[in-house]
Amino acid sequence: MAGDSILTSLLPLVVLFAIFYFLVIRPQQKQAKTHKQMLDSLQRGDKIITNGGLICEVVKSEEDFIKVRLNEDNVTAKISREFIAKKLNA
């Protein structure tokens, strides 16, 4: 009888954790994985948007940074990979 009461008291917590996992944790992991794949696939000439809203063109991809061209006057800058929001499709 005591085992049944422990099981019935823990069942709502287990169900709540399962719902939390499938609605919050799993989608976040999937989004992080696709973002990492996007960062790894960046090549010269790709257009990107930074977290600050800048639209840039990739010049050179390095290990921790990406060298980008900001405008048509060949103004270049180095941006940390962490601050790239998304890749623009042509």
Description:
There is one protein chain. With 90 residues, this protein is an alpha+beta fold. It contains 1 helix and 5 strands. A 5-stranded antiparallel β-sheet has the order 4-3-2-1-5, with helices on one face. The protein is rod-shaped, with a radius of gyration of 22 Å.
List SSEs in N-to-C order. Answer: HEEEEE
Which residues sit in consecutive blocks of at least 5 with pLDDT less than 50? none
* DSSP summary: helix tally: 1
What percentage of residues falls in helices of 4 or more residues? Answer: 40-55%
Give average pLDDT, whole number.
Answer: 90
The largest beta-sheet arranges its strands as 4-3-2-1-5
- Termini separation: 66 Å
> What Rg do the Cα atoms give?
22 Å
How many beta-strand segments?
5
Please describe the topology of this protein.
Elements: H1 2-40, E1 47-50, E2 55-61, E3 65-69, E4 76-80, E5 84-88
Antiparallel strand pairs: 1-2, 1-5, 2-3, 3-4
Please supply descriptive tags for the structure shown above.
29% strand, 1 helix, 90 residues, 5-stranded antiparallel sheet, alpha+beta
Structure at a glance:
The protein is an alpha+beta fold and 90 residues long. The protein is 43% helix and 29% strand.
